[in-house]
Amino acid sequence: MAGELTRYEAAVRIVLEHQQASVALVQRHLRLGYADACRLFERMQAEGIVVSVVAAGRVWALIKGYRLADEKGPGDAA
User: Fold this and answer.
1) Any idea where the domains of the chain sit in the sequence?
2) 18 and 25 in contact (C-beta within 8 Å)?
3) What is the pLDDT along the chain (78 residues), one digit of tens a residue?
């Protein structure tokens, strides 16, 4: 399961960096099979990171204030 968490965190980073998401984007960047990329993508949907489907299968991934645990935001201690 530890490897899965690492892949999931990498998938979230990719989505946030590109400000869009698709199974193909995750699949391409992480070099995963379709089923594995789908699982990661569905988890992001379940956790509210990927929110709404738009044209051509692209999904906006704009969650204001969302960040990974190792990233500091405004007001965080240095």
Assistant:
1) 2-60
2) yes
3) 556 568 999 998 898 888 778 889 999 999 999 999 999 988 988 888 887 666 666 655 556 556 665 555 444 454
